[in-house]
Amino acid sequence: MITATPHPAAALTHTRLAPLPDVARVRRARPADAAALVALSAPFVRSGELRRRPGRVYAARAADFLVAEEPDGALRGCLALGVHPGEDHGATAAGVLYNFCVARQRQGTGLGARLLGAALAEARAQSLGALFTATTGSGRLFLRHGFAPVRPGLAPRAWARTLDPRRGARVLARAL
């Protein structure tokens, strides 16, 4: 464990920290972003945090993706929202969040929260009844945004069938 002695407040007033670059915008992905999405996701695929998806899948599902784009055009984060129709007569559609990743150098800067907030707003705009996701990590960001662990059987069946039990992912959900 590393401990540090806090600096007196007066000393901090003379310290100028270099600001982190702002993300210019969160926008909908385009098919042309497929290669950048593959590259952004690659470290998370290697670590086992994300499933491998070929570039053609990113291109075909570009409309599902929100991306965080830096002023220089580099993509630093993405999150996809897939919509699943209600499975019972009159049931409300549900959303599934997937392929959530933020470049390592932007983690801890609020970029993930910004992407998740944009996805929540999109889900509300589409009048979805609930959102689901699966995570092999802690899920802290999702939990802070009102998600809670649920049984996979509560999720859209088509999506729940694709979950690989060997990955040990937890399913989280949030009502909208």
UniProtKB/TrEMBL annotation:
EC number(s) of the enzyme? 2.3.1.-
Q: Which superkingdom does the taxonomy of this entry point to?
A: Bacteria
Q: Which Gene3D superfamilies match?
A: 3.40.630.30
Q: GO molecular function terms here?
A: acyltransferase activity
Q: Which CDD domains match?
A: NAT_SF
According to the UniProt record, what class of enzyme is this? transferase
Pfam families cross-referenced by the UniProt entry: Acetyltransf_7 (PF13508)
User: Which residues are in the N-acetyltransferase domain?
Assistant: 24-164
- UniProt-recorded name of the protein: GNAT family N-acetyltransferase
Protein source organism? Streptomyces laculatispora
User: What are the leading ranks of the lineage?
Assistant: Bacteria, Bacillati, Actinomycetota, Actinomycetes, Kitasatosporales
